[in-house]
Structure formats: C-alpha cells, structure tokens
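go over this record:
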Amino acid sequence: MAELQKGLEGVIAAETKISSIIDSQLTYSGYDIDDLAENAQFEEIMFLLWNYRLPTQEELEELKEKLKQYMTLNPRVYKHFEEYATDDVHPMTALRTSVSYIAHFDPDAEEETDESRKNRAIRIQAKIASLVTAFSRVREGKEPVKPNSDLSYAANFLYMLKGELPSDTEVEAFNKALILHADHELNASAFTARCAVSSLSDMYSGIVAAIGSLKGPLHGGANEQVMKMLSEVKSLDEVDNYLDKKLANKEKIMGFGHRVYKEGDPRAKYLKEMSRKITSETGHNELYEISLAIEKRMHDEKGLIPNVDFFSATVYHSMEIPHDIFTPIFAVSRTAGWTAHILEQYRDNRIIRPRAKYVGETNRKYVAVEER
C-alpha cells in the first residue's frame, strides 16, 4: 500500500486547467493573479474558470445578463429564511441549507448535459449572492433587497446587503476580493466538491458539500477569526501585550502562514492596499495601523507573512459588513471555482475512492454479550 500522507499533503489527486500554484505564484487558467486583480471584472473570472479562456465582449454581456436574470430568488425562498434567520444561526449554516433548498426550484436540476450544467453553474453563482444578502437582512428584521439590473455582480452584492448604492472604492475593493478568492487549486472545499460529484451526484450536492468544508475555521472561517482577534485589540498600544499572551499560550494567530506559500501569499498585497485605502476613507485608520503592527511583529519574530484572510477582514469590516458574513462572502466568490471544479470533474470522471491505512486491533473473536 502507498505511504500515508496525512491531509493528503503533496499528493496529486487530479489534473486541472482551472488554476495553479507554482513557485508561490497563483494563476487562473494561465493568467497571473496580479494581471487579473489589476484589470479584470469578477464576471470575467467566472467565465475564465468555467471555460479556460477570457470572454469576448459579447460573451461577457450575455453572462452579465444571465446573472442579473437569475439573481432574483423564488418568493418562497425569501419566506423560507423567516423560519430560522436569527443571530443564533450561523450564516454558513443558513447558506448550506438555502443552497440545498433552491435546488427544488430549478427545473433542470437533474438534467445532466454539458449545456445544462454550465447554465446551472451560472444560476447557482447568481443566486448565492442573493441568499447571503437576504439572510443577513431578514435576521435584522429588514426586507430583502432585489438586485439592481444596472449594477455589476460585486456592486449588486453590496447593494442587496446594505440597501444603498456602494461607493466606487467599495466596489473596487469588493471586486478585487472576489477575484482573489475565486479559486485556489485543489483546496479542501474544492476537493470536497469534486469528491461529492465524482459519484455523479448533482451540482447542488457538490456545492452544499463544499460549503460544509469551507465553514471550518482552518479554511474559510479564518477571516472571521482575524476580525475577532483585531476586535480584541483595543488600541495600537495594546498590540504587544496581546500578542505576548497569545504567543506565550501557544495560540494560533489567525491570518498568517499558508501550507502552499512559503514566500508569502501573492493575493495578500492587494487586500493590504485596499485595506489602507478603505480604512482611510471610512475613518478606521487605527484598525489598519493595528494590522500593520501585528504583521510586523509576526514577521520579525516568527518569520510569518499575512495570507489573504488577514487584510480581507479589515476591508469587509470597514464596509460595515457583519463579521459572521465574512465566510459566506468567501463562499460567494469561491462558488466560481467550485462550479469550475465540478464541471471539470464531470468531463473526466472517476469516482474518488482513496484507501486508508488500518491501525486498529486484529484477530479479534466475537464474544457473546453476556460474557463481555
């Protein structure tokens, strides 16, 4: 039997054309993440991940129209949130349930042709933004906001969440965040999605499985934990004392280090700059300064560099986005990657069924219950 690799670290489990991490550089279908973050719209990234190429102008406009068309939810879905939309229910739990629920209203949910699968990916991508924003508003006792046909995907999410038009800086920051989180090779949730559909289960099942994986604090939940940490540091003067206690107790400092990046996360610099820009505009300058102080201390003492989660937390906080919505936002972005991986798995499928190394007892004999 093959040698055990815990967490499948270093194991090649699939071939992909979606994204790559080579020498600490992230690419989407061969396009450097720097090039895309500086120039692209998130809608272009969706198309790229699904088709391995950027869209023409006509294709981009067609995709945007479909996204806007599919964003509005069935009225029963909006009503559905009233049954459990409270502060006691984590938004990722609600998202997991609601994605499963919307499958009931998809007339082609079980049709498995290439065309129907691609259209299903667009529908899920469109509706997941509406699910997150509607849940957030309903639990606050507010009416859900329907999408605005004049807005981009990034702008529409912020509009549906807050009920007011976002600023240009907010749209720029959010568009970048969506692009940077869209895919990341064979991460835990993408692998989970591929495992689920490798049995030829449907796309909704794959996305629900991926959401369950992303919910964990070692994956998508990290940026929410970063904001919790930053909230505990009351001022710049308290940074050293706070870190002293955390490090002395051998507690993990969230937002630092990454399994596949040894020279630093290439996505982090963009969110760091957006954090600087948006905290300045919104009056949260000290939050950015606290982040810089933590970054310096972790680098100088531990040799650790921030990952994408660290500065995304301050970006979202400065937009007045509830902290427990951070991980669902990650899901909104990563749905583009999940659906791409699901489509790719379908194209060249073999059911994913690894082996396990048995380490339990052997040669045992059954003993009748009255003799045990």
Summary: The beta strands are 19-22, 25-28, 31-32.
